[in-house]
Amino acid sequence: MLAAQTRIEALLIIRHGEQALLTLIIPLALLIGLSELHIGELPEPRVDSVFPRIMALAVMSTAFTGQAIALGFDRRYGVLKRLSATALPRWTLISGRVLATLVVVALQAVVLGVTALVLGWTPSAVGIAPALLMLVLGTLAFGAAGVLVGGSMRAEIVLAVANAIWFVLLLAGGLALPAADLPGPLGTLAGFLPSGALAEVLDATLTRGALPGLTPVLVLLGWFAACGAAALKTTRLT
Question: What per-residue string of b and e applies to 41-63 under the rule 16 or more CB within 10 Å gives b?
């Protein structure tokens, strides 16, 4: 049952045109553009600095924005209410969504990683395993935030709020520009946002071959715990 639910959820994400634009086409275009166009001062090859931030953007797009919007409209059309009345256990429904999101993130990592290699990306081999763990943690943190937004608001409001937060985290969260290049307090703030924290740990593991710092890991764990606890209290089936 879990495998079947995971497959269905993953296919729904992959086949949705708007989701594909948000989760793959935009990150892919930004990866190529920021790597090939000399915007800002970055060491060569530029893709080494760009890839961790774009990978963090891809995770945010899938686990937060995509899941929030999908959950909001599933609630609006009564999908969750109908599924809860079937033989499908609630834990299977939740686990299927989580695993499907991880599957899509894995596909994103493959596509973006291959593209980055073509552009000259030289990742640290010793950092790949820690980076994978950080991708899972980042997916859980953004997923909890997505459930919090998508499970407590009307679908139309979810659509606006999720996209607005996506733009804020893109611009102020150290994704469009490195946190060090952001003006004044924005650079400091970026490190305490889930987008900035995930980009920081991916940069540490993949670019420098170092272990992720304690602070960004705690930031991701904090967002996961806080959003998850709030989502448990506010999420409604309809």
Answer: ebeeebbbbbbbbbbbbbbbbbb
